[in-house]
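for the recovery benchmark. tokens below, seq after
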């Protein structure tokens, strides 16, 4: 079996696939208010083009794909694409990141298509605060989506909560109780200075070590592992089934174990979330590249992967915001 290894000896075996840069929410830390300068539809990779690229990655040893965005559920035909990716030889772990606003309608079709695992963004259980953080979102839709996903049998369901000082840090305990009640995994995320939105949100940056210490006053936490848990460091809450994940790109970066690249909706391969290094695949695909040349292009792209992000040292350098890359 072939494999992709970057210049720092890291095996690249995971692709995060952004299906769209559009979204039906406007989380203030992610997308600018009123933003509508989206990628033109003729630049979107078609499902055939996506299947070719992911097929090439699979030949080169990738077995995990996460579908993300923007909001992937706003792209028409997502279950059809998911089924096609799931059927690719070598891809044995297909997962989805969503805000769950439209999940209730699609949960069964996604499960049937082979999506195994779900990550759902949810920063608060307070209706008003949810509305404020997401620029007008309705919390009950997300809760409805989560309950539908649970009833459909997705497991695990991980909730991603960006914890922000003075915004939702007071909601952490309520989120813990909610996840214990429903059997969800809860992951806390530090804000990242991606684009102007992310940099503004960085004014609310909260080191997650503080959150862990606070939770230790109330719960007994022990270190744990979670298969496919990615960069999160996990703790189990004793006396419950709950696992808590801490994703700390700033306070404790995890670049030395990075195994992923990101494919954006227009066919740009981004080698690092926190750097601008990229490689354009769309022109090659539209010029009729053959499979061997495509595999070689991907190998060449991987040589551009930088050693680490510089969110702490150079917080001004990433111009694109999270929904453009596929967070
Ligand atoms: N729309 C989907 C969702 O919200 O889950 C998928 C895409 S979203 C860009 C992926 C993740 O990026 C979400 O968990 C979101 O909270 C996170 N995110 C967006 N901007 C961020 C920022 N500036 N810092 C940290 N996390 C961010
Ligand atoms: Fe949309 Fe997800 Fe960004 Fe929120 S975090 S604006 S749901 S893409």
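predicted aa per position
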């Amino acid at each position: 079996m072939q494999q992709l290894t970057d210049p720092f000896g890291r095996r690249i075996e995971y692709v995060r696939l952004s299906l769209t840069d559009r979204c039906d929410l406007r989380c203030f830390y992610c997308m600018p208010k009123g933003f509508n300068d989206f990628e033109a539809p003729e630049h979107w990779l078609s499902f055939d083009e996506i299947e070719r690229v992911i097929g090439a990655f699979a030949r080169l040893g990738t077995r995990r794909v996460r579908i993300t965005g923007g909001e992937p559920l706003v792209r028409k035909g997502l279950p059809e694409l998911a089924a096609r990716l799931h059927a690719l030889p070598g891809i044995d772990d297909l997962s989805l990141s969503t805000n769950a606003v439209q999940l209730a309608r699609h949960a069964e079709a996604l499960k049937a298509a082979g999506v195994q695992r779900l990550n759902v963004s949810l920063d608060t259980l307070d209706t008003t605060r949810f509305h404020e953080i997401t620029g007008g979102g309705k919390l009950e839709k997300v809760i409805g989506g989560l309950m539908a996903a649970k009833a459909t049998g997705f497991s695990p369901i991980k909730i991603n909560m960006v914890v922000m000082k003075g915004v939702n840090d007071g909601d952490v305990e309520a989120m813990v109780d909610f996840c214990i009640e429903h059997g969800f995994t809860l992951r806390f995320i530090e804000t990242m200075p991606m684009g102007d939105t992310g940099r503004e949100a960085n004014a609310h940056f909260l080191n997650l070590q503080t959150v862990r210490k606070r939770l230790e006053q109330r719960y007994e936490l022990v270190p744990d592992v979670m298969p496919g848990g990615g960069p999160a460091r996990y703790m189990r809450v004793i006396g419950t089934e709950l696992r808590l994940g801490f994703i700390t790109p700033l306070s404790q970066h995890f670049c030395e174990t990075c195994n992923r690249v990101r494919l954006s909706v227009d066919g740009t391969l981004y080698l690092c979330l926190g750097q601008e290094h990229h490689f354009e695949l769309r022109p090659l695909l539209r010029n009729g590249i053959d499979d061997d040349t495509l595999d070689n292009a991907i190998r060449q792209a991987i040589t551009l992967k930088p050693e680490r992000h510089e969110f702490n040292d150079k917080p001004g350098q990433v111009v694109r915001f999270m929904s453009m890359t596929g967070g």
